[in-house]
Write a structure and sequence with these properties.
heterodimer, A: 119 residues, 7-stranded mixed β-sheet, B: 111 residues, 5-stranded antiparallel β-sheet
């Protein structure tokens, strides 16, 4: 089955540094990927929709200058948390649709997530 | 953004008992899906029910959907300790759009 690979699985960084998280569709092309954030004991909150070759669409309340999304190819989207602060510590998870030959978005596949801890 | 509420927020049962979780949503949907998440880990897709379906089964799972009430339920029969996890419903408004998750139910099954 289709696989979405997300790296790193966990990262610890100092406050003020930037962290890049990669999301790759391994055996299918993904024109659209989604990024979610999950705080402890809470649900997944959609942060942004990443579209290949165009600007990402951010949900209300998500700072686009802080969470930089790049979707430069059909198999890779990256989320960069810039100038990270302790309040950015969270579980970040990406997902991508596998598009059928008929162009219909079918199943949505999730990466395994990245636990970010900002000291 | 979050689509809706899940009920109950937490559920504790004994092995062998059935667990029922409910989910309500706010807008029109294309389909509704249920996911499981073990503590601190990724998501496991359990079942998808389309807006024109009313009930679906998969193994020990039974999902119902009532679009008139904008609600769904997930029933896990003969629960096992390994079913201990958080369960989320998630809705898709249209083809190719993002999943919007409910707040989730934390299920604890004790042996």
């Amino acid at each position: 089955g289709a696989v979405v690979s997300q790296h790193p699985s966990w990262v610890i960084c100092k406050s003020g540094t930037s962290v890049k998280i990669e999301c790759r569709s391994l055996d299918f092309q993904a024109t659209t990927m989604f990024w979610y954030r999950q705080f402890p004991k809470q649900s997944l909150m959609l942060m942004a929709t990443s579209n290949e070759g165009s600007k990402a669409t951010y949900e209300q309340g998500v700072e686009k200058d802080k969470f930089l999304i790049n979707h430069a190819s059909l198999t890779l989207s990256t989320l960069t948390v810039t100038s990270a602060h302790p309040e950015d510590s969270s579980f970040y998870i990406c997902s991508a649709y596998q598009v059928s030959r008929g162009g219909v978005n079918e199943k949505l596949f999730f990466g395994s997530g990245t636990q970010l801890s900002v000291l | 953004s979050q689509q809706g509420e899940e009920d109950p927020q937490a559920l504790s049962i004994q092995e062998g008992e059935n667990a029922t979780m409910n989910c309500s949503y706010k807008t029109s949907i294309n389909n509704l899906q249920w996911y499981r998440q073990n503590s601190g880990r990724g998501l496991v897709h359990l079942i998808l029910i389309r807006s024109n379906e009313r009930e679906k089964h998969s193994g020990r799972l039974r999902v119902t959907l009532d679009t008139s009430k904008k609600s769904s339920s997930l029933l896990i029969t003969a629960s096992r300790a390994a079913d201990t996890a958080s369960y989320f419903c998630a809705t898709v408004a249209g083809a190719g759009t993002a999943l919007i998750f409910g707040k989730g139910t934390t299920l604890s099954v004790s042996s």
